[in-house]
Amino acid sequence: MIDFWIILTASLVATTTAILGCFLIMRKMAMIGDAISHAVLPGIVIAYYLTNSRASFPILLGAAASGMVVTYLIQFFNQRVKLQQDASIGISYTFLFAIGIILISLFSNDVDLDQDCVLYGEIAYVPLDTLTLGGFNVGPRQVWILGTTLLIIAGSVFIGYRKLVLTTFDPAFAAAMGVSVVLWQYYLMAGVSLATVVSFESVGAVLVIAFLSGPAATAFLLTKDFKKMIYLAIGFGISASIIGYYMADWLAGSIAGAIATIIGVQFALAFIYIQFLRKSRISETLENKVLT
Amino acid sequence: MEPSVETHNLTVIYDKKPAIWNIDFTLPTGKIIGIMGPNGSGKSTLLKAIMGIIEPNIGYSKVFDKELDDVRTRVSYVPQRQSVDWDFPASVWDVVAMGRFATKGLFKRLSKEDNDIITESLAKVNMTPFTNRQISQLSGGQQQRVFLARALAQNADLYLMDEPFVGVDAATEQAIINLLKSMRDAGKTLLVVHHDLHTAQDYFEHMVLLNSRLVAEGPTDEVFTQEILTETYGGTLTTLSKVASALKEKDFPMRHK
Ligand SMILES: Nc1ncnc2c1ncn2[C@@H]1O[C@H](COP(=O)(O)OP(=O)(O)OP(=O)(O)O)[C@@H](O)[C@H]1O
Ligand SMILES: [Mg+2]
Fold it and tell me: Could you tell me the pTM of the whole model?
């Protein structure tokens, strides 16, 4: 049963992040997950300071708020200051992370808090923290939280699909049609903040970042249809979760590490596959030319 | 006749430097109108300001005598081809279908009529055989035609096109201009950013000559003169000789009408 809960947890995170990752990659914002993982620190510290507890709900709220702040800053630097996307991401999250560190040192007398306790959630512990409803044990708390998050994200993307695709592919044309590019940018980023922050708590930041960019990148290599790219990315994320889990079990190693490794292997295999395909296609056309 | 586009003191400033300055004009309907000027003279900026893609710092514009928001479905914008990432995973059909979304809202499925319009638009630009092709596998001229098909699918009355002839071969250019002329004959207004002085008189009945500020605007016969072109393009040798040879062609018209 433990196997099942851990694989389900990873798969839920994989599905949510794969959907968002496809949009992020096409917007050249794949590293936003990395940025958010650092940028949430001040929100966490402030939430902790205000409530004086490590209860996860206020902390999640603080983290999500910081996630939105960093999204706003990135947008601001990129659009208003005309800084490149990657530079905007870099400067925004290091700035917020620095503020978080300063806050920690300010409150240091009574704070035993560091990023690790929130961000480096350990997937292996997920089955231990179960939820009881009306006297019944209904499974791990995280599975419920992640399941709800997935429903929210999948639903929002489904509702906004056309506008999200349009503003991703051709923002100028979208704006000319009267579609607010900035609004849909925030819509997407609100989803990314929610998904990453919730997932950090259960599977840790590194795995979330790997899930956000890896499966989407692999899928991008293999298809030229955006919808298929999303489905493929989900498939890669889930299969990496399953294979990674059993690999970690076999090696008695870190589950998150093993899953992240499989994500990398999937990408490498896809890359080799398309190189091979390209070569065989070239030699095929050459042969045809020679024959005719 | 109702004007297609009018601008009043339209000014856009990037980083303290004006890209367009105090542009004032009223353009007619039912014509193919050229927007010409050297690189960086604000042609793209002008189109974007009219379409509300960038907010003007000063001034305003109107389309069909109304606020843009009230007539958006009657206006179509064709961006510069290089402005999008053609590696985006989509087919030719997917991109042209975007032209139908404006009137569709979030959910409504494309109707049979929408599909027919898309098919027809692709046929008009001779892209039917490429309908299911991935956009990453198109040549530059084919990409341009996909953008045109998307605009056609919008079924608008006014088209703003940013350099539709860049990177297309002579045959395609001829096909596109014929298409534009048939659209004009159907009563549409076309505002086209263009670079080639030699073809300008053939293509456009009306012109806007731009060099950050408005140099001239009016029927081609009146504004396509040595004096105005020199003022637009400045005094560099190469552009001047281009102007001279363009004008020479004007004296010996090669129109086959
Ligand atoms: N996003 C921007 N930020 C800052 N400056 C800009 C921006 N876009 C354009 N400019 C500047 O504004 C001026 C006008 O640019 P615009 O693109 O409108 O010219 P153009 O006439 O379309 O040129 P081209 O013939 O090269 O397409 C140029 O000097 C350009 O450097
Ligand atoms: Mg331009």
Answer: 0.88
